[in-house]
Amino acid sequence: MAEEGQRSKLDERPRSATEREWETFVRESESDPLRHVGSVTAPTAEVAHEQASTLFGRFATDIWVCPATEVSRFSTETLGGEPGGSERGADTETNADAAPDGGCRR
User: Composition bias, kind Basic and acidic residues: at what positions (predicted)?
Assistant: First the structure.
């Protein structure tokens, strides 16, 4: 079993200056927890859902797409050699595509 490490927020930058990034979570059966499988870049939640379904939904019973700016990521490791410690979504704005509570859509 891996040792428990200190988790810090990771510095993540958007991939596109013109479209939004959406984190994708799937559940393969009713008894399974949601699992993060990746992200897609799309202008709306509906388009993100279509893309996520094509890429990740082969065996999924549920697919959730969440605005990446509303997701905070914590890790014991850094990505791409960048030191951890900064927060994604620190200056989020109101999102018309998000669920009423600002969360994910399914």
Answer: 1-35
